[in-house]
Amino acid sequence: MGCFDENSEIMEHFFHPRNVGKIDNPDAIGHVGNPKCGDIMDLYLKIKDNIIIDAKFQTYGCAAAIASTSVLTELIKGKSIYEALKISNKKIREVLGEMPPHKYHCTVLAEQALKAAIEDYKNLASPEP
To answer: Rounded to two decimals, what is the model's pTM?
Structure first.
């Protein structure tokens, strides 16, 4: 299928994405998009005592975009928000395996969705006066 091997981790996460959907009453939402490629990601987090106890996503985009968000949700569950912030797009690419360089932006977008969600959580937890 396209530029990915049928047996790749990318295709596995594309055809069988983990943690798809919304979380009712999320503690944080990260919404990002890339107008150049058209990918849009929404990341929903449930957080308790700064630990990500649940993560779900809705992504509109290519196989690499969907796979990147799927992997991200698996990597961050059970981690503190501080540990999660250390997960880079390079780590997502490492998990997904071989990917054409022109698809790297999908993993960058997933990282940005995580940062946006955690920023949202921090803003909700400590609203400015």
So the answer is: 0.89
